[in-house]
Description:
The radius of gyration is 17 Å and the shape is globular. A hairpin with a 6-residue loop joins strand 5 and strand 6 (103-104). The chain is of the alpha/beta class. The longest helix has 20 residues, at 202-221. The strands form 2 sheets. Strands 2, 3, 4, 7, 8, 9, 10, 11 and 12 form a 9-stranded mixed beta sheet that branches. The chain has a 3-stranded mixed beta sheet with strand order 1-5-6. It has a single domain, classed as Protocatechuate 4,5-dioxygenase, Chain B (3-Layer(aba) Sandwich). The chain is built from 9 helices and 12 strands.
Amino acid sequence: MMIREPVVAGRFYAAQRDTCRSELLDLLQHAGPIEVRDSATLVGGLVPHAGWVCSGATAAKVFKALSARQPKAIVLFGGVHRYRGREAALFGSGRWDTPLGPVDIDARLAERILGHTNLIVDDPYAHEDEHSLEVQMPFIRQLFPQAKVVPIMVPITPSAHEVGQAVARTLTSYQYDALVLGTTDLTHYGPGYGFAPKGEGVKGNMWAKEINDRRFIDLVCAMKAEELVVEAAAHRNACNAGATAATVAAALGLGATQGILLEHTTSSEVLGKDSSDSVGYAGIVFQ
């Protein structure tokens, strides 16, 4: 059996079972009531993937909203920080371990997805060092204990949205009870990221959030899947536009007509620091 062991536990989130669960439950408790009309009709979401201390609260809002449903499967569209392949990389069988217990792969669904497109390959080793989906797995284990997953890493290519379309075709063709979940962070702003067109400090960070991030968020909420990769390349306002494009396209294929923004914040706001470097985070659900 292929087992994907945690690689950022102890850095991005707690590695010890009790501490991890305690931190996760605290994030969910402080997420507050989620004001989404008829949460049972949600088909998916988009979450950030930094360490929980920075973006966990934003992700928790999305997971809390989606937990109104208890699907049999969750297809995950992950970011690509190290993988250099051109095709999307799927983890096709086995399980992902978390401090809270294992999350099983839906091998049958993975096989069926592979049969619907040549844009995805079964390459579990591509996931070895990628953190963007790992930080979501404890939420899934806690809130969707019966669900199996299909993790897919989506490179930033013009065809990224077609990956999501293929997943939606598979889910609808076989009438799967499933959610789709993607992940990206937003503008990485400041000298540490080599991107500070509006200057350093509070003024620049505010532009990054209110203007640059919002360009990308507005396209996501308007379900403009085919425009997201080009937008991020032009304005550097998302690190994983491929995963986002696939998520939006899949949500469209499952019947969603809009994205609903639950929270938009930045690392500098969360940490309460007037840092010259800041990263944007958004939590969005699709309905």
